[in-house]
Give the backbone structure.
Amino acid sequence: MPRSIRQSAIREWSRRDKEPPFLTDKEVPIANSNNGPSSSKPSGPAPSTHSLSFSSAHWTTNAANLTVVCCLSQPSPPRPALPLEIIFQILAHPTRWVQTHHAASPPVRVSDAQRPIILLGPFTAEQVTRMRQIVFRVRSKDQGFSWDRQNHGTFVGSWTWFKAIVRKADEHDRDPLPTLMEDHWGPPNDEHVKKRFELQRNRHAGTQLEDYEVVLSEGDERMTEVKNVLREGDVFEVRACAAFPAWENQVDYAEVGIWSLDDLGKSNEVRSGSQVTRGADESIGQSLS
């Protein structure tokens, strides 16, 4: 397996008619917004799968990971080839994760109900194994007033929030997301729910939209619980909630991204919404699982 991983990576570079570049201190890979967490974002178009550029404007985490395998698995005097076990540890570092799923919600208002606003999956067994981080971002507020003045500006007594659901997929999950966006407290698919937990509450009587970010990563109790119950064929759902008629969850924007171990495939396409497109050459990264 180790030898086949190295050969597959080298074949990948050969197919693109490029020699694997050797990185200098000035050529540190920059992850774009679709390929993993990064403190800076590159400019310029995404790289073509047929003509890959190695400039910083076109550099992706997947391209960098292929370079790591190609360069470090071969000797370069006076340095011997690194053991593949060490290379695998490098690729397992959070900076080497790639974004594999993403979905966003349009503006929506929910009152005295819960509404599914984001759906990811159904997942394959391999995608579940490789999953390492889930990032939830939202810009939202409540109705902006309440009688409970002592809790204004805090998160105490707030009755608008967001929750995550892990459940089995049903026949409706293959349809476009708008078919799911009906206010309800007891949706038919609740019988398939395997895990639910709160993500974030709005500030009590907030007058301005606020940005919130919730990161579930390795070592986080909630991420561990998600991985323990998530199986092939399951989906990950986010719902906007509000209790009582006077409370309203005003969502300006919401998104969820999932980062995973790179399978070093030829085409690491981000899975959008409920659509799943598997990357090519899946055998390359089996030892990274």
The CA atoms of residues 31 and 61 lie 5 Å apart. The chain is about 15% helix and 30% strand. The beta strands are 98-105, 108-111, 113-120, 131-141, 160-168, 193-201, 210-217, 234-242, 248-260, 271-272. The longest strand covers residues 248-260.
